[in-house]
Amino acid sequence: MTKTQEIRTFNFNKRDGTDVDHPLTVSGHASVFNSPTDIAGAFTEQIAPGAFSKTLTENDDIRCLFNHNWDNILGRTKSGTLTLEEDEQGLAFTVDLPDTTAGRDLVVSMERGDIDKCSFGFIPTADKWDYSDPDHPVRTIEEVELFEVSIVTIPAYDDTDAQLNRSKDGQYKLIELVEQRKQIISKIKGELSHE
């Protein structure tokens, strides 16, 4: 199966950075562990604790972007302007915002309350499926390859504390695969009930 990069969306917080020695920072959780989320009515998904530990150890060059746009880099682990760690809640991040047009515009929008969400882009490298209820399978993502976290203007879901957002192509392919598996399980159950 081809691996597709996916995106998730969550809330974040900001600090005002009035101390000139410390730039304006944004912090929060780009992912929340064990938070079941409905994905387009096709299945439930959750991120397992520890899903980011390998990628955080192996990848020392993860970026923080604005709206998943690689032209608008807000911070980078390699430069020390972005820090990422797993805590008991999920994937925690802090980014020191740059004194750039994108950074300044973001500050204004956040102060107005227009922007208050964040997201992350990744490829799942290990997941587990539970089809005990074939109409509502559960996908647990156990390990990811993380590329970026983003501060975003329009998340795909309103309740971003618990909802997840993914790229449309990856979402449609995954939903199609889940629907195929549901049909196979239903067919097997039908055959077994006639025995």
Automatic annotation (TrEMBL):
Q: Which GO terms describe its biological process?
A: proteolysis
Q: Listed GO molecular functions?
A: peptidase activity
* Record InterPro entries: Peptidase_S78_dom, Prohead_protease
The residues covered by the Prohead serine protease domain are: 23-167
Report the superkingdom from the record: Bacteria
| UniProt keyword annotations, A-Z | Hydrolase, Protease, Viral release from host cell
Q: Which NCBIfam families match?
A: proheadase_HK97
Q: What is the protein name stated in its UniProt record? A: Prohead protease
What organism is listed for this UniProt entry?
A: Levilactobacillus senmaizukei DSM 21775 = NBRC 103853
